[in-house]
Write a structure and sequence with these properties.
single chain; alpha/beta; Rossmann fold; seven-stranded mixed beta sheet; 9 helices; globular
């Protein structure tokens, strides 16, 4: 995961107060995966309905980066928090959401006893270096949550060949210019998450992703775990 760490710590904001810049900093700025602010807000709202996130829910994000996913929820009055290993991105998140709780730490480490209603990750699990690491993160997420865990935008191993071909041919944005296509993603079996839910004795729902205008969506799925 060190190669990815270097990539994320090398990103620097043009400004720190614009949602468009937060979207760019979190990596959604290439030609095939770019979002306008309006489309990004709709994108977040689609997941909000799918999970679902209620108006009074608190939300904590693993791998939050600079907080682009959390910012629309924060602006609606949700209590939010997050953890990320990038000092650059966490510093931006703290500037934009001054009343939120942010941790500069690895997601597989223990931190903070406070629980949140919804604990989520978005487009992060592909950056982990092993399934063992991902398993620890899943357990940490379940421990941090009082009700639900949502793991969003997970690469589907059944579509790995198609996904990697799209990346190598430059069909997914300008990843080559950013060096992102030189580092492999980690792909997952849906059954892997089902086994975790069985071991942790939580309910699970897995939904294939289908987001207009987001090419990666063709190769991803979402996991929702609900605690008893």
């Amino acid at each position: 995961m060190n190669a990815w760490r270097d990539i994320w710590n090398s990103r620097h904001p043009r400004s720190v107060n614009d949602l468009a810049d937060l979207i760019q900093l979190n990596g959604f700025d290439s030609d095939g995966t770019s979002f306008t602010v309006d489309n990004w807000i709709k994108y977040v709202e689609s997941f909000q309905k799918m999970i679902p996130i209620q108006p009074s829910d608190s939300v904590f994000e693993f791998g939050c980066g600079c907080g682009a996913f959390l910012k629309p929820l924060y602006d609606k009055g949700h209590e939010v928090g997050g953890v990320d290993y990038s000092e650059v991105l966490i510093s931006v998140a703290k500037i934009n959401m001054v009343n939120a709780e942010f941790w500069l730490q690895n997601a597989n480490e223990c931190f903070g006893a406070k629980k949140y209603d919804i604990v989520m990750s978005h487009s992060v699990f592909q950056y982990f270096d092993s399934l063992d690491f991902a398993r620890i993160v899943c357990r940490n997420m379940l421990e941090k949550s009082s009700r639900k865990v949502a793991i969003l935008d997970v690469p589907n191993i059944q579509l790995q060949r198609e996904s990697e071909r799209a990346r190598s041919f430059g069909q997914i944005g300008n990843a080559e210019k950013k060096g992102l296509n030189k580092v492999r993603h980690l792909f997952y079996e849906k059954r892997w998450f089902e086994q975790i839910s069985e071991n942790e004795k939580v309910d699970i729902e897995i939904v294939d992703q289908n987001v207009d205008g987001y090419i990666n969506s063709n190769f991803r799925f979402n996991v929702i775990m609900t605690k008893p």
